[in-house]
Amino acid sequence: MWFLLLLLHLAHIELVISQAEDKLILKNKGGYPCEGYLEVYHNNISGYVGDTHWDKNTEKVVCKSTHCGEPVENSVTDTVKPSEDRPIWLNELKCEGHESALWKCKHPGWKSSYYSKLTVKKLKCSSNITLSLDRHKCAGAVKYSIDGKPPGYFCNNSIGEKEARLLCKNLGCGGLREIPPSESMVSDNFRDSSKMKIDCSAFKNADPDHLWQCVNGEQDNSASCKPVSVICEGYTRLQLKGNQSNVCSGQLEKEENNNWVPVQQDNFDFDVCQQMHCGNSLSPNNRTNKNLNVTCTDKVKVVLKHSGKDSKCYGTVNIEVKGSVNPVCASSWTKTEAELVCKELGCGELIYTEEHQNSGGIMDHVSCKGNESSLWHCQAQHGKNIQCSNQPYVVCSGSVEVKLADGPGRCAGRLEIKHEGQWKKVPVKGWTDAQSAAVCKQLQCGEKGKTEKFSQGSGSFLSITCPRNKKISKISECLTENSNNQFSDREAEAAGITCEGHKVVFLSGTCSGHVGIEHGREIYWLSGSKETWNQESADTVCQQMHCGNAANFSFNSTADMINKVWKNSFSCSSRENSLFECNQTTPLPPDHHNSTAYVKCSGNIEMRLTNSCWGKVRIRVEEKEGDMCGDTWTEDKSVKLCEKLNCGTPIKAHNSPKDGDILFKSLHPTNQTTDLTQSIFVKNQDNDKSCKQKPAYVVCSGSVKPRFSIPSYKCFGNVEVEYEGKWIPVCEDALKDTNNGNTICQELKCGDAVETLPYFGPAPADKLAISNLNCIANANSPLSACSSVTASTAACKHSGLRCSEWRTMVPDKKACSGTVLVHWRQGLSAVSRENFNETEKEKLCQDMDCGGYKSTNEIHPQTIEIDSFWNKSFSCGENPGSIWECENKTTPSRKEPVFIECKKEPSVSLSQGCRGEVRIDDVPVCASNWDLSYAHKVCQENLCGNAVFIESKAPSKGSGNIYHVSCEKYHSIIGQCRRTKGKCDKNVVFITCSESVKFRTTEKHGGVLYVNYRDKWERVCPFNHSQNLKLCEEIDKETPSTSTEIKQVNLETTLEFTDVTMDVRRSVKRSSCESTNQVKIYCPDYETLTTATPTPPRPPIPTGPIIVGVIFLLVVVILISSFIRMYVRRVRESRALARMLPGKDMEFESGDYEDVMDKDNEMEDFSRGRFRSETEFVSENDGRSVSSLPYDDIDEADEARPLTFPATTAPAAQDINVHEDGVTYEVEDPQESYDDIDTIPETAQTTAEIHDSPETPHDLNTAAPGLVKRDEDYLEPDQDK
């Protein structure tokens, strides 16, 4: 079905296509389209129309379908068929007059009617059709006009060369030259005129006589309709040449064979100026050298604009007509048109062209061959307001300029290229000597050049891409359309060039000396000719050197200088800024080679660093002082400056000042320079801010010096080094070398290095630290003399140092009061009271952070017996840095120690009595560098025993400045240790002292053991039980708890006892283990903690089995029947009780009992003639009779009071240790087996326990302590019957 539908559809399409190809035309010898005999094209085959049934309606349809109006009255005649070989396509037509085509009238079918006449009808229609070209007679868009009405245009949807040739022929313009782009030939009228489609497809096997015969009558006013355009051979292309400022004036030329030749005769039948869109011709046209010169009324020229302003050799392309500037549109713009613009404007070669947005213009669809005299004379669409979206933009090589800026002369400096009106730098990366040579040649500075660093200047970078394998002559050859792209490398360095033609003037001294000229590697001397070396010339040289004016000048006749006199002589005036700007004197004066010039200037040049041996480079000239730009500052200049200032050698700087008062952009030493002040200085312009944030900055090694961070601790502590004005720490690796440590200790007059110390205190906020030192073993060399002093921001471990002459003062007992002792490498010595007065005591109290000295009249007795006294006295001057700056070499004669009492004594405490956060004066202590010995000091100081646990936690009172503490061996209490406040990178210290440790068990006097020493109750790992009795004493202090604990698998605490352990609280240790075994301890007087439950009534005992058994026993042994009955009853009760498992239901079937006794065993025991003792009966000590429970309550009772039965002969089930002190220690195994439930040994001693332990499974082999026997029932303690 689908296949049939497809066939029908294709057949329909084929039918439609064939119908669309049918065509009726009126044929005549003159080619007029609205008169002649009827010729029909059907399936591209021409034929005739018969006249059978011909009438007026038939005539109407003919004129209508050929778009020729109405039939003319009495115009129908018969004419002989031109050929008998052609078919009669249509005959017997019956038309009504409204049909659109003859084949729409009624007829018998195509070629279906026999027609034997020799003639056919010929008629004339009313319409008068004229065709013309829009712009010129033989070139332009094709227009049609019907009866003289406003013209319309043909759409070029299907026109080819055949139709175009026909058109040129119809117009009398000869053959076809070309079919141009339709848009280039259209005028402004096209937009608002009617447009008609044409279709010549019916004439595949023949040619139409007239283009009108191809019209189908359909109007097309859409944007897709483009006009049919032709250029016929009868069209002559013209241009005017010779006047760039007006392309509508000049020598008239015409195009012949793609060449332009002068026109010599004015024999045109049209206005040549109108054809060239130049207005009208001015009469008469002038003839020069037989060539015709024409000046038109319109003045037209091509102009380039950038940002709305006229620009030279770059910008958007515009046409100025009679003073009005209008854009050129870029709809078909190519490189050819752009190159013609550069050529026309005398701007060299095209670099690139692109398009910019625009809304309209005066010229569009420009198509140039490249040999035109102007863009205006290229083939294009001209109009007053052509709509378009883009405008061409061109950049020609003539827009490119080059210079060397901020250098010591015209031929040396930073390379800058003026591109599209802006001066831009060039990155040095990728720059070659060949490119430098091209720049030097372009600047007439010699044939060669070398790359050199100059001031970086301001502005952006220009990307350079020079052609490979080609020697460039101008730098513009390296520019492309991508040269202005955003430069990605922000750290790029600007290229600088020194050409071989570069020369500079210098003085042999600073602002005085012989006047020299350095050219390349050669040194020359300026002639001292009396004719040219005068006050004006001397002033010019001094001003050029920034040294004021010439104070005096003279001549020198040294032979070696005379032999190298500069070849030129200069005559200067007061206007020149440089000697080379002065006029050269020719010919040379007669005494040109007799002497050389010498001058002493009025000014001077000084250089310094802002902070003696480090800082910004400052230069003072002509009573002005300012900074040097850092762009061109080099390491070699730093070496010379540090040497000049006696500051050692330069070291790496880590700061970079962001603000400078830049006075000079650069300085350039010559080969004769021995001092930087003799260099050539390039001054900064007042409005140039490019270097404001980059002043030159130097750090010399002479600025480096060491110190210990806390002056009161003499010769030991954190080492700090002054670096760029800041005190920074030293990395541990830098202090490991003995020479480095000795250098620091010796410079500080502290002897030799003894050891490195851990860094004390908060980490500095600045990451900068001394990472490397390289010092030699020389007692007289300071740290600044080391060959390497390197600072780095890389992470490292900071360190301190102890020198051999270390010492510090500490009171003997307290932190801020007591006998003053000096601790030093040989032990301790007392300080003599001699001259140690209130001033010295005040300073010592301040050093110890104890406030001021507390003046008192009390006589303090000596608190320590000591024979050794410090061999130096103390006498403080004004504002000493520490008590040790008061030390002098005088040996005291008085052997009485100093006693001091300061105003403040630090308070060391714990936040929760004997445990908690460590605080000094209510300020937390940082956990950094804290160790166990410090914690012991805190506990002992607070009478809390020893420290058993240390941890770090977040501070309880915010995270502000907290104490950092560092103790030495001689510090007996925390208050004596070094301490300082600062930010803590870690948490603060929390400790637990032994006095705060607590123990408890789950039952009274026993059970699972728990310890609390870190704010929670926790189980312990298995441990040695040598001190269980002492442990029981601690347990008795706490109330037992039956609360359910969270299951612990990984335990973290153990008890470590020794033979001398007297206080079990000090045995608590942090030690992890994996164990699910519960450590239990049973002390004397052990009791379980359980809730008593009322005794339920006993269930009735079934009597059937008992009666049968009794009868059987009476038959066997009548004499012992009573004993057998009692025995059976007891055994049954015991077996029933054993089956009462915790969490399990007990099931009894309506009075039927299982046989709970192995009769073979029973008889065996009986046959042996003995009875079991009371201790052998399971039920007599601790078991509970099942008979006392009602059946329905067995589950309830089982859940309320789980029972376990220990088997003393089953060590796999549990370990029980009974010590000499009578304490039982037990570890339960939750994996014990219950398979032996029915094989209870006959000799079992049974006890009952209640365990408050969720992780311990119920054990059928474990007894329940606390159940006692009363008569034949088993009751719990303190329960009535």
UniProtKB/TrEMBL annotation:
Membrane topology, from the record: Single-pass membrane protein
Residue ranges occupied by any SRCR domain in the UniProt entry: 24-126, 129-233, 302-397, 402-500, 504-602, 599-701, 706-804, 807-915, 925-994
Compositionally biased residues, Acidic residues: 1226-1239
Biased amino acid composition, Basic and acidic residues: 1249-1258, 1268-1281
Keyword annotations from UniProtKB, A to Z: Disulfide bond, Glycoprotein, Membrane, Repeat, Signal, Transmembrane, Transmembrane helix
Signal peptide as annotated in the record: 1-18
GO CC aspect terms: extracellular space; plasma membrane
PANTHER family membership: SCAVENGER RECEPTOR CYSTEINE-RICH TYPE 1 PROTEIN M160-LIKE ISOFORM X1, SRCR DOMAIN-CONTAINING PROTEIN
Organism encoding this protein: Astatotilapia calliptera (Eastern happy)
Taxonomic placement: Eukaryota, Metazoa, Chordata, Craniata, Vertebrata
Subcellular location: Membrane
Region (Disordered): 1224-1281
Membrane-spanning parts: 1106-1128
UniProt cross-references to InterPro entries, sorted A to Z: SRCR (IPR001190), SRCR-like_dom_sf (IPR036772)
Protein name: SRCR domain-containing protein
